[in-house]
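Because discrete structure vocabularies remain unfamiliar, we reproduce here a specimen of the format, pairing a chain with its fold in token form:
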Amino acid sequence: MIVTERPEPWHRRTRSFLRATDQRGELVRGARFLRRLVPGDPLAPSTGRSSDRLARLLAEAGADRPSATRELGLAAVQAWQAVRRSGAHPVSADGITVLFTDLVGFSTWALQAGDERVLELLRSVAEVTESVVAGHRGSIVKGLGDGVMAVFADPGEAVNAAYETCSAVSVIKAEGYLPHLRAGLHRGNPRRVGDDYLGVDVNIAARIMAAADGDEVLASGSVVDELDPGAVIVRPRRSFRAKGTPKDLRVYRVVPRYSS
């Protein structure tokens, strides 16, 4: 009796062919080269956008083997992020308000919390932050690990966004840690370079943030001078000193009146 082997089904042959083609060295190298031509980095710290989450899924899918399809997918996400960012930042002839945020005491907790809990908290904070900033017509410039840099055309919207973000983050649950966000605001004319902003005004905003306590929003005089006095409660932060800031810099604690 002669036994003949049954031919492999066509769909299996096709799948095997496509998999082998997808892993061919020259195709993977070509896809990686194309990806390097696209500005940005889809695997940069997440700001909670859907495109960030998609990039993570693509990167983790079959990460143990080379894949031209995965590289091209990441390039597509990268291009979409670049297009979205290119027109997203506010423009104002009178300057922009720069916001920096930071989680107080995060680094100490993160050292013993473990990656899973740390990433879960950061995702929650990023989602809250992006939602609030977008709701106040601002734009996140970049994630900074446990904080963000964002910009606004309207200083009043910036103050409200900062305060609401601090309030929203304070109710996020994290085992062994009570999240408290601090925020700093400064208004000026930083230089835009690609997707980022550089200059003294950016540094001042970051220094102001570093001086804030948890759940506190500090703003420079350049921000406060543009606010509606009836919309905010303003208290001077006396004896403010920070390296790299003007000696006559005025800094205030600001709270929207609707919150009091």
Observations:
- The mean pLDDT is 80.
- The radius of gyration is 24 Å.
- The chain is about 45% helix and 20% strand.
- The longest helix spans residues 115-135.
